[in-house]
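Dissemination and training. As part of the outreach component of the grant, students in the summer workshop were shown how a complex can be specified as a set of sequence lines and then modelled as a single object. The example used during the hands-on session is reproduced here so that future cohorts can follow it. Participants entered these lines:
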Amino acid sequence: MADAGALPADLLPPRFADWFAGRGWSPRAHQLAMVERARAGRDALLIAPTGGGKTLAGFLPSLIELAERPAPNGPTSLHTLYISPLKALAVDVERNLNAPILQMGLPITAESRTGDTGISRRQRQRVKPPEILLTTPEQLALLCAWEGARLYFENLSCVILDEIHTLHSSKRGDLLALDLARLAQFAPNMRRVGLSATVDDPEVIKAWMARHGNAPSVSPPDRSRSGPPRFAIHPQRGGNDTSPEVSPSGEEPDAIAPPLQAQRSGGGGSARSDETEGATGSDSIDLVLGPPGAEPVVDVLLSEGRVPWSGHTAQHAMAEVYETIKKAKIALIFVNTRFQAEFAFQELWKLNDDALPIALHHGSLAAEQRRKVEAAMARGELRAVVCTSTLDLGIDWGDVDLVIQLASPKGASRMVQRIGRANHRLDEPSRALFVPANRFEMLECQAAREAIAENRLDGDPPRVGALDVLAQHVMGCACSEPFDMLKLYDEVVSAGPYRNLPWEDFEQVVDFVSTGGYALKTYDRFRRIVQGQDGLWRVRNLETAQRQRMNVGAIVSPAMLAVRIATRRGQGGRKVGEIEEGMVEMLEPGETFVFAGQVWRLVAVTNMDVLVSPAPGADPKMPSWGGSKFALSTYLAKRVRQLMFDQAHWSVLPDDVREWLEAQRDRSLIPGEDEMLLETFARGHRNFMVCYPFEGRLAHTTLAMLLTRRLERMGRGPLGFVCNDYALAVWAIKPLDQVDFEELFAQDMLGDDLEAWLAESFMMKRAFKGCAIIAGLIERRFPGQQQKSGRQITFSTDLIYDTLRRHQPDHLLLRCARDDAATGLVDVARLGQMLARIKGRIRHAALEHLSPFSVPILLEIGKERSPGHTGETMILHDAEEDLIAEALQ
Amino acid sequence: MTALPSENETRTFAYDYAVAGCGSLRTIIGGAEALLRASGALWLAAERALIVADLHLEKGSSYAARGQMLPPYDTRETLGRLESEVAALAPATVILLGDTFHDRRSEGRLARDDAARLVALAAGRSLIWVVGNHDADGPRALPGETADEIALCGLILRHEPQPGHQPGEVSGHLHPAAKVRSPRGSVRRRCFITDAERLILPAFGAYAGGLNVRDAAFAGLFVRPPLTGALGFGRVHAVGWRSLAED
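and obtained this result:
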């Protein structure tokens, strides 16, 4: 542990120094550095591993400032705002923060405010805010959309963004960045503080959280309360070993950027050039690094030294997993999907002869139930929790000493995050165990293990702010107070993800918010926001504002149904949790299934409820699931390819996996690191083509769709395809070994073919629905109504999509949907990089028989439904055949 | 769950249907030959009559007036579909089977060119507006006759299906949709639904949603497990009752 020797002794007021001493602690170097940065009036990003006292480091400056200032005369006002990606984390931090406040007897109130906070408390918080408010991005958006937001936040001194690495690269991050820009308008002196776990590239996060451009309110920099002026050169700290690494921005800012007005005039203007940054931007944020944690110890579990050919559940290894849990104090068992969680929980329960307290935690469980598990965990009553990404971050559970990852890790950063949940003490290594479910996953686990040992992480690429989120924000601004379009534009482009937003996109968004943004101008009289005589835009009426507030947020979840225990009269009783609509479709009344760790019999599905009765002991049907919802990260995929190619490296692998690789080498071939292996062979009456790009299921599915189109045109008669994270297989009527593969994989498939396919695809419709909800075209909730499920929306977004596409293909929301689909749902960028990488590097192996590598993917055939037109038509054909069969009975 | 009067009937009724050209389904309703078109329209060749139900014109602007800015293109989309059918079949009579407008003020919100297209539809043929619950008064300025119900080819055409046994009734109103289930998954489609006695048409309007035919609203309307004609891509698929799921 670092001591504070290097930093001025007076950094900590006596009361704080005594508190540390009284608990036998000495403040850590990065905690003092955060205090020092705050005194200098600087924004800061703290990157520290879990267990490093990161949260306290974030709050310490605010606590000191509040403790030192004279008691205010009037009512208190908000001083520090803390934003967490998780409700539970905000509540937990409230508890952890109030401990030192009480112990030091500080006159500070710190309260959380989440969607679960009671109405009376929320109302009181609006009238009489605490000095420190702990909340979520969604609540912040809501607060910003209230009338009087400016007054509420005018004395805000500091905003702390926790677990920032999980937020920045998402639509939630877009929304938060916009609200951050808004807060900076209300409170120009506000300091920004980011807290993050170890990341691949801190610059991306700095750029996200920084203030960009030269928004008018930034000057004059009034940092009177402390330290040197904001833009002064900060002296480099002396090179003392124990001093934390601080990298102040060492340069004078550029001269004032050219006025934006000039760019805007002359009809439209273009994207702001990057040269206008500099004055602010990433350089305004100091990076503070915490001490590195002890290196984690990562093992790979081999059940009887064997790894199965295929599968996603790691069922084969459950007995060993159970034995490992028995030896650990408390274990977290991570899986990648909710149903894997249910499955693993069920399997462990069957083995649980020692009646270990094992719990289940995933996003479909009722909130109360999740809270119960979290509370039991905090009290140390549990030995293991099977969980999904819901526990990737959050509450500090000191006693967790083992993290188990069942099935594919998917990415190195995610793993580091998960492993960090074990052992929150810096000086002891975290322990983790990977359990590969199949042979490719074994390669993946090995690659992840090596990446973690080298501390090489895969980073999220920087994001360009989404326009649907911006539309929601603009509407929120109008609900809060009238806005001037030029000023709001300056504010918006001061937010990291929107710093290059072209003026005409902003205009389009405002037009969308007002009238829907249609080329056919028939809605002018229905405007949601109207421009007054004073040139300011304001919301049309109170009702419109209220509706906006009920639909805030950038998280769109699939339609969920409540699972309730059926009462004797066949009505819905106690709620067990929520289940995705699509999952229920696979079940028939009378069938049993596993949910929330128990076996239930489906009684009926009513409008909003899935009615169930307990069916203990029944042999449940497990709803099927594909692989993980997370794609294999680009970085990890690369390492898997390297590992596979480097035969000298194979010795680290278990015998059966090594033998499998050797058999592949002997019967087919092992491709070079940047090559793509493509195999053709005939099997049954089908001609197969299997290739191994290792780019993740999404990119593979897109690729397979496009390849099928091309093979169709080449007259090969493709019949179907199947994809997983590593490979894809296409089969056809005619042999495929004579196909010109360079032509087949030519990069131009990402042109017209992609657009034609995408426009028709269900993925675009799904993306469109998400964008329509976020942008406010479709409302999730109306005043006085319960949350809607997808089925309750009175019109189908698919119908709207089809109509809009035919009549105004360049509409803003179609653009948003296309961007979302191309990134989130079909991974076009990754596909593009892959096609470029393999150009001229396709290694074709024309085989007599299937190869060892192809077995896992071929085993997946028939387990998946083919999406899109063809799939739907097939279903209708099936039903017709059934009718004919019925008639012939 | 909807209990059909004949759900337990073991005897299977053999529906008389055939796939006709253009993906239509040819069947017999109340003794009259009917062509169920992939567009969702009904064609009575004997009278050269084209029947469409539930256009819900200006549904988009109806929502926009309440602050939800749905694309204003539903009317032109729906009229475009209707014009295609008229061009393909050259009907002597076009019958709009009620709820042609989404609300009572819809006619006033019609764009001028859309109104002109409706006028053109009436030229050289008879245009009949059967009134529905959304548009009980019929059109104010647009051409055509207004009717509560029409007798044609031995059939009775009205907006809302009447309860009980109604042989020969053709109606709309309920926006039937079929959720077709197969081992591959499920698909939800607008559909025709008939028990060979009566027929309910799918909604024709671009923004008109669908109500699952397993919903209680359909209970008691059919004397035997009905046949649905699910609208697929360019054709109507005959789907039996047992292939249908609730939502």
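Chain B touches chain A through 48 residues (CB under 8 Å). Students were then asked to discuss how this feature might be tested experimentally.
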